[in-house]
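hi support,

uploading two proteins for the ticket. first:
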Amino acid sequence: MKKLFNCEGITASTLTTTVAALVMVTVVSSLWMTSLPAASMTPAEMIQSKLPLNTTIATATDAQLLQAVYEAVKQWPKDFRLIVRTAAGARKSIRSDILCMAIRGARERSALDCNWVLEILREWIKADPSLANQLTEAAMQCAPECREALQNLTLGEGGFTNPPSNINAPPGSVGGGAGGNVCIVCHNGTEIQIACSDLDSYLRSHPGDTSGPCVPTPVANP
């Protein structure tokens, strides 16, 4: 009876070729998994794939989530809006930062569409008009190329037009607004108005900002 398999017939060259072929198959399979079409993944799965092992969207730190959003948008820029909505829905306290990281990721792929940014802002401002100034200014700083479009942001009938037009609060107008629920915050030397109910969470996510009007720095005489 003939032997079914003869180890002596395997040369070093054959073995090397076989191993190389297996490595190539593994690499191609890995690349194929990485480049799966977005349609086969949900926005949550896109973000999850960029988080550290054993970390979920719910348990990730703010820094981890922001980095995951950046990486996800960079890989799937056409799903910008879905990724931002998903991440912001899970972590509303840092949604401005989430939008900024998404803008950064899309820009690196030369795929930033200002209409995407406008669509996200319209949704957020409709949900809470008191955040119009805060959200729009943040978007302007992250996407200066969209500044003109953002300045002309229109929410439609019954909505707000040009929300950033009143970013600089009148002197002494701490509070103000309907119901007196708007607070002044000093942001990068500029006074902006945000909802008082969001003041604490805003200051936690913007450590350089301070509550109240900006205090001019005295200029020393030469």
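and the second one:
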Amino acid sequence: MRTSRRFGYFFKLCALAFVGFTAIAMTQAQAQTSWPDKAVTFIVPFPPGGPVDTTARMTTQAMAKNWSTPAVIDNKAGAGGIVGAQTAAKAPPDGHHFFFAAIHHAVLPSLNTKLPYDIQKDFVPVGMGARYPIVLVVHPSLPVKSVQELIAYAKANPNKLSYSSAGTGGGTHLAGELFASLTGVKMQHIPYKGSSPAMQDLVGGQVQLMFADSTSAIPFIKSGRVRALAVGNPEPSVFFPDLPTIASAGVKDYEAYSWSGVVAPKGTPPEAVKQANAQLNKVLKDPQVIEMMNKAGQEPVAMSPEEFAAFLDNEIKKWSKTIQTAGIKPE
């Protein structure tokens, strides 16, 4: 009798333990699936209406459709993206604060040794967002119709070709410097305050070529006022399906385009990062989101946190080498 009572007591304990463990597991599962449980803030380091801001709004609005809480865009513009990054680095690492980093944040470490944050040490990567293609365009009067013809012409006429950019140290400038360093050509860089005036002077013939952002270039390519030779993407762009990549046209290892992606303050819970990445990648594959982004001149790109970390590290190293080779100094 005593033995049976002992067994009964033992089984009761096991049952209670099972119930307890089950409750804990359910609580943990609910905690994991209930993210977010309050408003999620996405800090954007540029003014409303720009490419990065547009990417942020399109992706976060789509993500928030599955939430019971809102997605809030907080524009912290200033100092070429520094103000926003500094603000984001100090944001609470509670899984409800994120930052839309851009190519600027891979370039700035090589141009400013006194940044008030470290894009790699003060943040954890979440995932890529969008790519903004860069297309190599020339004035129609230039007697070249391919990348190889351009290289041959530039080598036969050192420092006689000039290319415009949206500003020193920006993506359209560095794309040109990378091209020069990989091909050995010598060209004159003419910086402007924005893509629009840089493109206008190319159309007017004041400069001969430009590594232009696709949004600025498409209208002039369609009208025949500039001639497109190739794109800087690693693979053909959806916007220029008939154009080769600069790398496939003979410039090995060439890859240049602007981009934006999501990071979170250091210390953000891994589960929040995991869920944010999963939901971001889900909307980046949504046909409606893809259509909206394409209309805005953007190519959605999904990555895991690990892939985005490797991408960011490679971008920092690539542009650091390009900046050192070109001897670029901050304005």
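thanks. also noticed: DSSP finds eleven helices and ten strands in the chain.
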